[in-house]
Amino acid sequence: MTDASWRQAKRPVSAPLAGPYGHPFHPILVTVPIGAWVTSLVFDIASHLVHRPGFLSQGSQWLIAVGVLGALPAAMAGSLDLFAIPTRTPAFRTALVHMTLNLLVTAAYAVNFLWRHGTYTGGGSVGWGRLALSAVSVALLGVSGFLGGKLAYRYGVRVADESTQAEGYTPAPGTPKARPTA
C-alpha cells in the first residue's frame, strides 16, 4: 500500500460531508438509531409487564420510526467512509459486512414499523412476533456494531495514523498488489 493510498483513506475527498480526519460523522450519527431501537426493544418487553401497555406499544412503534429515519444520514456518512477504504483489504471486507448487516437491520425495522402500523392493537402489548423481530434486529445490530468498532479501533479507519492503519490496509495473502495510480 502506498503512502498516497493511506492519505486517501485518512483524508478522503468527501471529508467535508463525512467529517474531518479524526472526527468522522458516522460514529456520532449511529447513536440515534441504536438508541431508538434498543429503547424500542425495552418498551416492547415492558409492554408485557404493565397493566396498561398502550403507551409503551405506541412509543416503541415511533422509536422504531425515529431509528429508521436516523439510520439514513448515518448510512450516507458511513458510505463515504467506505469509499475511502482501499479495496481488497481486510478493512474493506469488514466494512462491507458491517454495511450489509446495517442495511438488513434497517430494512427489518422498516418492516417492523409497517407491521405495527397496519395492525396497531389500540392499547395492548406488543405482539410476540414483532417483539422477536426487534430482538433479532438488535442482536444483528450488536454484531454490526462490533464490526464497526473493529474498523475504528483495530484498523483505524478515518481515525488512526498510517502505521496503525497499515495492518488493515495490507492486501490479504495471495491477492495481487494494487498498482500505484498517477
SSE blueprint:
Elements: H1 3-10, H2 15-18, H3 26-29, H4 31-46, H5 54-83, H6 90-118, H7 128-154, H8 162-169
Low-pLDDT stretches: none
Q: What is the terminal-to-terminal distance?
A: 14 Å
What fraction strand?
A: under 5%
Provide the structure class. mainly alpha
Give a description of the structure.
By secondary structure, this protein is mainly alpha-helical. The chain is 69% helix and 0% strand. The chain contains eight helices and no strands. The chain has helices at 3-10, 15-18, 26-29, 31-46, 54-83, 90-118, 128-154, 162-169. Helix 5 (54-83) runs antiparallel to helix 6 (90-118). The longest helix is centred in the middle third of the chain and has 30 residues, at 54-83. The chain is elongated and about 65 Å long. The two termini are 14 Å apart. The model has no long low-confidence stretch (mean pLDDT 85).
Summarize the structure.
With 182 residues, the protein is an all-alpha fold.
Descriptors:
single chain, 182 residues, mainly alpha, 8 helices, elongated
